[in-house]
Amino acid sequence: MKAVKKSLFISVSLFCIVSLTSCESGGRTLPSANGSIYEMLVVMDKSVWESAAGDSVKAYMGADMPCLPQMEPYFNVSQVSSQLFDDFLKPTRNILYADINPNRYTQNKVKYKTNVYSQPQAVCVVQSPSAEEFAVCFEEQKDAIRQWFVQQEIVRQGRFYRNYKTTDTREAVQCRFGCDICIPADYLLVRDNADFVWCVNDGGSLRRDLVIWSYPYTDEGQLTEEALLSKRNEVLGRNIGGQLEGSHIGTEYKHFPPQYNAINVNGRWCAEVRGLWKMLDGEAMGGPFVQHTRIDELGGRVITAEVFIFAPGQKKRNPLRQAEAILYTLRLPQEINQLQEVEVGNKKE
Description:
By secondary structure, this protein is of the alpha+beta class. The chain has helices at about 1-5, 15-20, 45-50, 50-60, 130-165, 170-175, 225-240, 315-325, 335, and strands at about 40-45, 75-80, 95-100, 110-115, 120-130, 190, 195-200, 205-215, 250, 260-265, 270-280, 285-295, 300-310, 345, 345-349.
């Protein structure tokens, strides 16, 4: 498909990330990581933290996450100098280390590591000869650095779901679409139609919804942002109504326009759409959603999986990110049926 080949892959393949997360402890037993999800510790001397280099890190890593109804950062960022980076802080789950030393380095280099002081842990080390060079390097690599930390959080959450997954909803997805997905056990199946599966987790103080639907693939025009949102409004409007008669779910365009990105999931093209949903012709309800759309090559279908949450008066970044991780566990029929390399003796076939 030409559209697929021309798409800009802005996300690292989850398959590649999993291969990067092998244990680096050399056989040591590591303690559990400290801190909450999407918290980051920046190890950087105070003089650099208060310079333009530090300002750049604070501004980018702590920038507002898009498509949320209120301002929440990508990461909650804190800082400590290298002299105070002790055994108490080393197990922090996400660490960005500014290793600035003119006696050791003559050029910039970025290193990504996992499970260095704890597990699961993500550590990015930026080696630079000066604060000025660090600022240059961070400006060039900031997109990749932030996305790597985000994907590490997604990988961790996905591993958790694989250990605590439901059966009936998973079986419904397998039956309807021939796909496999790790859905947490506290998501209950609400609707199971020929081309639409809906499950809900409404325990506690907020609600999380997961919906999956499919339709025949005909041409590349179905994969544009406009086409995907039009299909979203059609499918969800038909299947999910509100308490008032005639009300139904839709998409917010005016105040927070949706964002479309082409990303890479399991080494394959995926359309990601982020935005806000709202209830039309009914209650004043709404919240953020994330949608993944991919092509079922064996079945000749478009398959869309979406999560959306409703959490009035609460912060939404963490529950949305946790729900979003479910989307990355989806395996399409061609991935499930893909022939694996078989090792026979010392040879591979």
